[in-house]
Every structure is written in C-alpha cells, then in structure tokens.
Amino acid sequence: MLDLQRIREQPETIREALRQRYDDPTLVDEIVALDVRWRDLLQEVEALRAERNRVSKEIGRMKDQAARQSRIAEMREVSHRISELEQALREAETALQSKLLWMPNLPDASVPTGPDEHANVEIRRWGQLRDFAAEGFEPLAHWDLGPELDILDFERGVKLSGSRFYILRQAGARLQRALIFWMLDTHTGENGFTEFYVPFIVKEEILTGAGQLPKFRDNLYHDSEDDLWLIPTAEVALTNVHREEILEGEQLPLNYVAYTPCFRREKMSAGRDVRGIKRGHQFDKVEMYKFTTPETSYAELEAMVATAEDLLRRLELPYRVLELCSGDISFAAAKGYDLEVWAPGQNDWLEVSSCSNCTDFQARRANVRYRSDSESKPDFVHTLNGSGLALPRIMIAILETYQQADGSVAVPEVLRPYMGGVEVIRRRSR
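^ that's the sequence the OP posted. Answer follows.
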C-alpha cells in the first residue's frame, strides 16, 4: 500500500509511475476524489461535534427553561445529522481504503521501462549449454522422459484431480524431496536463514497484507465455509509473521526461509504451457524472505539474487539473470529479477526464481514496523522475497539437462547424498 500523504502531495508523480507500469493512471484521480470527500466529511463531522459539545456546556448553564428546551431540540437535530455524516464518513473511508488496495507499488528509478516480459534486460549468464548433437542424440522433453522412466504419471494425476495435475513416483518423488531438503539445509546451514513451517491455509487479511488480495482473487483457492484461503506462496505467510509488530532495529535484517506447497488456479495462464509440469495448480517451492531497514533493502536484494544463483551453480544448471522491466515487475514489487534455467528438451528458458524488493508496500498493509533506537519513532520495514528455488521447473531442468543417451538421467552430485547415494535414475519395474 502506498502512503496516502504521498498520493495527496505528488499525484502526478504517482500517475507517471502507473504509466510506466502500463497501469491505468485514473486510479489516482479516483483515490484523490475519495480522499477529498472523506476529509470534507470528517471536517464537517468534527465541526458539528465541537458545536454539540459547546452547546451542551451552554445548556447546563441556562436558567430559562423554554430557551433550554429549544437548544436541546436543536442539538437533537445536530446529533441526528452527525449520525448521518458518520455513516457517510465510514462508507467514504471504506471506499478509499478499497481503492488504495488496488494501487500497485511504484517502480524504482533504476527499473528499465517496458510493457511486458519481452522488455526485460538480461544482465548475465552462467554455464555452457550442453551440445547434445555432439553426443549423438536428441534431448527429450520431460513430458516424454518422465513417463519413460516411470517417475512421472500424467494420466493418474488427471484422474485424481483434473487437468494440470500429475503424480511423481519412485525416484521422481525422491528427487523432488531431495531438492527441498538440500535447499533448506543450504539456506539454514550456510546462508544464515531461519527455517519456518507455516500454515498452508490463511485468513483473508493475511493475503491482503501480502498484496495478493484483492488483485489476484480469481487465481486463489478459497474455502467459503470457513472463509480461509490456500496460500499461493510462502511469501504470504512470512510477510505476516510480524504483522502488527514493532521490531527492534538491531534485529534487522531478518532472513527467513520456508518450504510450502503453493496453490494457484492459473486462470491468467489459460492455454499456456499445457504440456508437462511447467505450470500447475499445485507446486512446491522453497521461499526466501527478508525484513530489512530501508537503507539496506536494495543491497539485500542483490544478496538474495546471489544466493539463488549459488544454488543453480551448485546444481550445475546453466542460467541467466533478467532485470524485470516496469511492466513485468510484480504488483507489490519496486524492483525485481528473474533467474531462468535452460531446459534443452523444450529449447526454452524457465523461470525458477523471482526475487523482489517490495520496499514498504507490504509492511504498510501488514503494519510491520521497526524502531532504529529507543528514542526513534517507529517506521515501516522493507520486505523482500525470492524463490530459493521453485519446483517443478528445477525438476524439469535437471531431467532434461542430465539425461543420457540410454534414456537414464544422472543425478546432480550435490543431491546424491539426499538420494541415498543414487547416481543415475533408470527405469525400474513396478
């Protein structure tokens, strides 16, 4: 959420920022108009309340009963008018807050301008793409390779839950578990993150605090009976861990990590990536999250990207880092990067990590503040999030990159201890 005072004082700056995001700048005009109405109503209510208080004291001193009753009658009318205005004031405030929740974060000045993903800027690459032609065979896509190895079952996944669901079995299931355990161990043992296990079902205000509601309502799974929501990412829960709290400055930065399944209805991607496991309604992810001071948040963003890159290098997966343009950064982000790995079976780059600095946008919505010292007034923290890393696309990249001419798949060396020493995945009898 943006600071309302900033919108009041710099409406044209906010409009221009929305134009850079290729969003509708008239949202600013709607907010300004609602704010003016709310302040006008508040001023009128406060003036009438002051008048009522003044006259009430005056009535207490009046000796003339007729005059006294006349003033009492007048104050009844004033009280009735105050009640009407208070109702209008509540409605205006609700409308204003609702509009503010639709306002995205503003792009940082360093963000390149562009309308969509095609305007993102590649800033570096790592690793050599494997030359399968030189090895004498054509790489298979994971949707062929997985079933051939009997580790990926699309038909039974659809039978259980419908389209865009699948089953991992045998070494496929173990490979995914190995990735999750290895990533968590690396983050907690080497990267200074504290592990969290969070609920996968949360209240509406938790999603609102993270910036998921109301914007992405149609893409979320909702239990209407209990009015609870399945999380689309661990970011939602981690954002709100310190909801309505004031942190001490010396605690920051706080580095958190959590594994969760993620649930998304994928309505916005209808018709895209329908083959394989690239885009599903349920997937797993290890999420990094940071609470920082405003002064350090952009340095912490670069550190978060470096942490995600280190995982990809250890997995020996060629990747590239993209700086996201103004039209492609997320709703809550002021600046972001995507890390993409190469999937040779599909001849395509797959996003496996998106790292974002949300500045104070989420902190305002969840009311997470910090005090730099005992004498300071509390200020909002900055929050950052990043995939560290997201499955199943890492699974795709491993299967397609490490496949061998005989149809087997080598296991990345760092994962072998988590696979019970298995070095190669081959088809097994059921």
